[in-house]
Design a protein that fits this description.
The chain has helices at about 1-20, 30-55, 60-65, 80-90, and strands spanning about 65-75, 80, 105, 115, 120-130, 135-150, 155-165. By secondary structure, the protein is an alpha+beta fold. The chain has one domain (about 1-165): Nuclear Transport Factor 2, Chain: A. Strands 1, 2, 3, 4, 5, 6 and 7 form a 7-stranded mixed sheet that branches. Helix 1 (about 1-20) runs antiparallel to helix 2. About 20% of the residues are buried.
Amino acid sequence: MRRLSISGAVGIWLVLLVACTSADTISETEMAALQEKADFWEIDQIEKKFHEATTKKDIEMMVGLWAPNATLTVGPGLTATGTDEIRDFWLEKSEAFKPETNWISDHPAYKVEITVNGDLGTLHFECHYVDADTERMQLATVADMDVARLDGEWLVTNMVAGSTMLVP
């Protein structure tokens, strides 16, 4: 929660700084650096919303993270293409979205990696699914995503999921 508050404060600070600063006093380099920080923050929000969506089983939030023609690969021969197939995957095949599971999607913040290159970027993170009733870890996965700014919004264009080892 503290990190979310800090991230939100940084995002608001960046918006206010840009809004309150005259274009004459900010160089192109400074403006590019501010844009990159804002892009990092927005891409980081994808990771946060992803985990919130799985924890709350909020399919609309989950599908809202994806570009219309995005792909999701979860294993050999298991690729969903487009938001309809991605929605079906989460609702029909994902353990996290099953009605009988009561999992919290935890994510070690220090393992998040983000890159930005103009309107394209990458996002890497781990998901540690903890059963809320037993407080035991049920599943650890990793996600490697390609993201893109489409019509001013950062969305997932491709995700490859896999298993991971729990290491510090």
